[in-house]
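Blinded run. Sample ID left blank on purpose so nobody reads anything into the name before looking at the predicted structure. Input follows.
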Amino acid sequence: MAKQKIFYQPDEGFVADIIPFYEDGEFKLFYLHDYRDREKHGEGTPWYLVTTKNFTSYKELGEVIPRGSIDEQDLYIFTGSVFKKDDTYNIFYTGHNPHFDVEGKKVQAIMHAVSHDLVHWTKIKEDTFYSEGIDFELHDWRDPFVFEFKGEYKMAITARTKNTHKTRSGVTILYKSDDLVKWTFDEVIWMPSAYYAHECPDIFKINGKWYLIYSEFTDQCLTRYVVSDSLHGPWKALKNDAFDGRAFYAAKSITNDKNERFLFGWNPTKHEENDKNFWHWGGSLEVHKIDADKDGSLNVSLPTSIENMFKTELEYDKVIIQSKDKLKSFLVKDEVDESYMLTFKFKTDDAYQIGVMLRHSLKEDFAYAYFMDYAKDKLSFDNLPVEAWSFNNFRNVYRNYRFKTNHEHEVKIIVEKDICICYVDNKIALSSRMYQKGGSGLSLFIKHGDVEFKNVQYKKLKKENEV
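Blinded prediction complete.
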């Protein structure tokens, strides 16, 4: 079954950690399928598979690695990686069973499965291995990422050292193997003394530099990266070290046959589809394109294939807004479509804050908004106006970014139903959700200053025969 959707989500259940693989012109996207309905589907998470060539149409292949029983190690099949050797595909994954803790057993293990077609998999239970509990904690032993380095197989593992306080104990370690079966400890490659754990490691090289992507296991819930001249470190965090904000997590990357690298993460839902409630684990698939800058920093942008899904319906060559002492807006469109894209460039020589209002209602005095904040060097998402004493709606949905006066910035915003993403200068992205219906208007605004918007284009989805 092929589904055309910008942010893929199955009809029943949700997308959690994506494990990407590319072959024969097609992205094979394994993911942790979160039913989020224990009464109907039971406990645990299997691996599902969808494929796509362009991120605009997805073919569902369903469950490919079933979860184990409540008495087995892999009741929850958590994150791992896909590695092909000769004609055999290997998946190394996390077997997680939270019930084992009270039984005195190890909660997490690294497990192995093989296939010849990526769809039918055989679990090799005898290849399972655990933390020995000497240098590293027993129950945090997960997210194996396998790659080849100098004729040897390496496996990056999320672990926690026993030699420091638990809130700073996260480490990324390497194991090594000659045959993908027997694995032995190699080295600790990164120990930042900053996180309880840094999950879902992804390691690759661009332009001679090594990159380690990880997801920060804190209240921030960010996917970040560090860079090094060597696989062995030292690893350095750059100023722009995150790919997105709070609403994009557990991202991993893969390249296609054009050597273009794409990053696959999930945009979380909120409990009961309410802005004021907590973020769930899992949601909908999001894809960013990754490029390396001259200074080694990684930029994210909207994949061209997704951008090409839209066609311009409404355009303004130039919009000038001036307001020295209050917020002032310009209505771009009073009735937007369920899915649309807004693109524009802007420049100011004096501004406190510039932004875009989504689901804008003049009658209700309500909108969601992306704020480009010159005073605070920040891109953020929130309600406008912000509700009094509201502390939980969109906390941590922001990116630090320097907006420069007398400099032209470029913005692309994409919306599908309750999901939105804002890209700035093809460098940073900020994703969110918006559940309150509000209005249907789309507006540009400025607070305290003047701004010139150029090439303002409202775009709607092309029909299927136009794509």
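Unblinding after everyone has recorded impressions. The chain has a mean pLDDT of 95.
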